[in-house]
Write a structure and sequence with these properties.
The complex is a heterodimer of chains A (about 325) and B (about 500). With about 325 residues, chain A is an all-alpha fold. Chain A is built from 14 helices and 4 strands. Chain A has a single domain (about 1-310), classed as Orthogonal Bundle (ABC transporter involved in vitamin B12 uptake, BtuC). Chain B has a domain at about 5-245: P-loop containing nucleotide triphosphate hydrolases (Rossmann fold, 3-Layer(aba) Sandwich), CATH 3.40.50.300. The chains are: A mainly alpha (about 325), B alpha/beta (about 500).
């Protein structure tokens, strides 16, 4: 078993494994249910993937530099509550407010992690608790359904352009922006350097703390954007709206081939990972797997993906 | 005559780019104390790691009492009677002395999964009695002095007697580096009294101690044993000559290429100090100058270089960069001011091993490659290629991970990074550590070339010879203070013995 996993983990294979997996999965599901390969189903698949992809994109930045953000589902839920509560008053401003709240939460997580030198999983776990309770309190523990007047502000999420759902276009814009940030800016390069070798990055004059804080701002900011879109698609805001999305999001990043130990990865890989998760989800639905049992599968997938992608020569001790 | 307790026959070991050990043969007789000396990089630590089972030799034989054997791991070497006392002390300070002594070997005191602590501590007390040290086995290790901890390690090594059956061989790797003079005497007395139980291999860079304790001495150089002599027939001068192995060759350090430095002062320290590490340090570094700092471990020179690289801000005196007073709070500030650091830990602090050659070369200078927030990828490739050509970096391509380069070529990438960042001052912290001779010479060539072009260099080295050979000016440090200054211009270079007197 270890041998097999190691062989899958060899460099040449590792790079193309996620894409090959995606193609094979699409083929399997397509054979089982030919309707799956029809355009409307594929558009539906892409729309359903958008929120997951945006969440996963945010946390990709954090994972790239060797950290983790466990607060993203609480952030997305809180964001949906903020939109539901304020859209009537602020209109489009409510979306800006929600994303700004995300950026602030990410900033605070980043400060706690970097300045107080707390491991990122603890810092963001604590943030997650704070955000979840905030959402519970301000929503008075209920789900808030958007009124008809409020929904007019949501057409940028729920509408279509030439038959293509807007949410797909939003996903593509996120892809373009995030890919540019990750692959073509100093921030992206520094993140990779920090993830792969923080002492060398520090000694080379990289302002490590600043890059880290920015990554947490991006992560929570994208989570908030995901919450905004979720609120629009479901026409409601709730403190548990994005519950159960943390595991699939992190699984998407890792399944796509970004190393959980940092340094290696890309937004493209996260896109592939998010699509794999979506196809698996749909495949399970076709197979009649209980929707509440799906995280059992994602949990197993996450462990296997980490086992395959992790480079054991790099980390002698795992804690 | 009985077979030696332990012998190595024609042991060879290679690492990528380095032939670490070449046909090494040594033997240790029962009850003998063997001294093992050599400069850094001579192969001592590789040899010790082979003896302790951490590395396996590529070829050659290991014999215990005349029987061939192999050490699969450190635990395996332990089982066969090889004990170790390391320079970086290996006791776990959050555990008691007794727990440390039997760490990993608690099974003998365990019944039904429960440890009989009374029995364990009683056994630990017996072990401690063997080395005649007055330590409570129930005391936590961090309450002990360094000397007492060393004795506990020795006691721990002696527990191997119980399983190994045969005669023990105990490796002492720089055991005196953290001890006071009186403590060293006690350690030596214990080692001598234990000769009936064990043989010892004693590694130290303090030649007088090696002479005092050892019966016989092996001298290593460039991965080979170059001398095997009785301690009675040796003295420090002779040992030193054997270690260095050649009279100072001016060409080796490119002394004919050494150009006088210019008058312009780029960096000036005035009464510089940091805690108890160093104080009252004064120097002036000029354009084109190599300023070498000599000193033993603990002399303060390590901390001084770290200060100048931005890792350990000074808390006393003044540091002026081109006349401006500065305090370097972190490496980023130092880099912004044109200071580049070439660290001794090349693979940790020098390079991001899992990034490409080109990404490493541009890492400290991405700002100048960025237009409208985006890195200019084609310009980056062009620059990386030109550095690979100019410094003759041997790599399959600029997108190869630095991990796959040899040590010498990795070091060239580090230098390329700082040249690309247009650093005006380079801090070279043991720049040739772990490099073989050819790679060293290439580094010397480069260092000469960049200083001729007007960079200034602060240098600390593994060997005094290298410091003297390269430097225009020499500072000697001891106990945190500068004890001596010497001119290092060609023809006036001081001899090593002239400086050693100020170092120890």
């Amino acid at each position: 078993m270890r041998d097999f996993i190691d062989r899958l983990g060899s460099d040449g294979m590792r790079q193309w494994l996620p894409l090959a997996t995606l193609i094979i999965l699409v083929a399997i599901v397509g054979v089982m249910q030919p309707v799956f390969l029809k355009l409307p189903t594929l558009l539906q698949l892409a729309s359903d993937t958008a929120v997951l992809f945006i969440l996963a994109t945010g946390v990709t930045f954090v994972i790239m530099l060797g950290g983790i953000d466990l607060s993203l589902q609480s952030m997305a839920s809180l964001s949906s509550v903020i939109v539901a509560l304020t859209v009537a008053r602020f209109g489009y401003g409510s979306f800006v407010l929600a994303v700004a709240a995300g950026a602030l939460a990410g900033f605070l997580s980043g400060i706690a992690h970097v300045k107080l030198k707390i491991p990122s999983f603890i810092a963001t776990l604590a943030t997650s608790g704070v955000l979840f309770s905030t959402a519970l309190v301000i929503s008075q523990q209920r789900s808030i359904t958007l009124g008809d007047a409020d929904r007019s502000y949501q057409t940028w999420i729920t509408g279509n352009v030439a038959g293509i759902p807007n949410v797909i276009i939003i996903g593509l814009i996120v892809l373009a922006v995030a890919h540019t940030l990750q692959a073509h800016t100093r921030f992206g390069r520094y993140s990779a350097a920090i993830g792969a070798g923080e002492p060398a990055a520090y000694a080379s004059g990289v302002k490590v703390d600043r890059q880290k804080i920015f990554a947490y701002v991006l992560s929570a900011g994208f989570a908030a954007l995901a919450g905004v879109i979720l609120a629009g698609r479901l026409s409601s805001g709730s403190p548990t709206l994005a519950a159960e999305m943390l595991l699939p999001s992190i699984a998407a990043v890792v399944v796509g081939g970004t190393a959980i130990t940092g340094g290696v990865g890309s937004i493209w890989r996260t896109l592939v990972g998010a699509l794999i998760i979506s196809v698996v989800r749909i495949g399970m639905t076709f197979l009649g797997v209980n929707i509440f049992a799906q995280n059992i599968v994602f949990g197993v997938v996450l462990v296997l993906a980490v086992a395959i992608t992790i480079d054991r020569t790099k980390i002698p001790v795992v804690k | 005559m009985t077979a030696p307790a332990l012998s190595l026959v024609n042991v060879d070991k290679r690492f990528p780019g380095v032939h670490a050990l070449t046909g090494v043969s040594i033997h240790i007789n029962q009850g003998e104390v063997i001294g093992l000396i050599g400069e850094n990089g001579a192969g001592k630590s590789t040899l010790m790691k082979i003896l302790s089972g951490v590395y396996q030799p590529d070829s050659g034989e290991i014999l215990i009492a005349g029987k061939p054997c192999t050490f699969e791991s450190a635990a395996d070497a332990n089982r066969q009677g090889i004990g170790m006392v390391f320079q970086e002390q290996s006791l776990l300070t959050n555990m008691t002395v007794g727990e440390n002594i039997y760490l990993g070997n608690e099974a003998q005191f365990t019944r039904y999964g429960l440890v009989n602590w009374t029995a364990l501590y009683a056994a630990a007390a017996r072990q401690l009695a063997k080395v005649q040290v007055d330590v409570d086995p129930r005391a936590r290790a961090d309450t002990l002095s360094f000397a007492a901890r060393q004795m506990v390690e020795l006691a721990k090594a002696l527990t191997l007697e119980e399983h190994a059956g045969g005669h023990l061989v105990i490796l002492l790797d720089e055991p005196t580096s953290v001890l006071e003079k009186a403590e060293i005497e006690i350690l030596f007395a214990r080692v001598r009294s234990l000769k009936t139980r064990a043989s010892f291999i004693f590694v130290s860079h303090r030649l007088d101690e090696v002479l005092e304790l050892s019966d016989r001495i092996y001298v290593m150089k460039d991965g080979a044993v170059v001398a095997d002599l009785d301690a009675a027939d040796a003295d420090t001068t002779k040992l030193h000559q054997l270690m260095v192995g050649r009279s100072l060759q001016a060409e080796y350090y490119r002394v004919p290429l050494q150009r006088p430095f210019r008058d312009e002062v780029v960096l000036e320290a005035e009464g510089l100090g940091l805690g108890t590490a160093y104080s009252n340090v004064d120097f002036k570094l000029h354009t084109g100058e190599i300023l070498g700092i000599a000193g033993v471990i603990g002399s303060g020179r390590e901390e001084l270089t770290r200060t100048l690289a931005g890792f350990a801000p000074h808390d006393g005196g003044k540091l002026r960069l081109r006349g401006q007073e500065v305090r370097l709070a972190n490496p980023a500030e130092a880099v912004d001011l044109g200071i580049g650091y070439v660290p001794r830990e090349r693979r940790v602090e020098g390079l991001v091993l899992f990034l490409s050659v080109s990404a490493n070369i541009t890492l400290a200078d991405l700002a100048s490659l960025t237009r409208n927030g985006l890195i200019n990828a084609s310009e980056e490739r062009r620059l990386a290629k030109s550095w690979v050509e100019r410094l003759k970096i041997k790599t399959p391509g600029i997108s190869t991970l630095c991990l796959n380069l040899s040590g010498g070529n990795q070091q060239k990438v580090v230098l390329a990074k700082w040249l690309q960042a247009k650093a005006k001052i380079l801090i070279l912290d043991h720049p040739t550590r772990g490099l073989d001779v050819g790679a060293k010479e290439e580094v010397y060539d480069l260092v000469r070339a960049i200083t001729t072009e007007g960079l200034a260099v602060i240098l600390t080295s593994d060997t005094l010879e290298e410091t003297i050979g390269l430097s225009h000016t020499l500072l000697v440090m001891r106990d945190g203070r500068i004890t001596h200054r010497a001119d290092g211009s060609p023809g006036h270079k001081p001899r090593q013995v002239d400086l050693i007197g100020h170092m120890v």
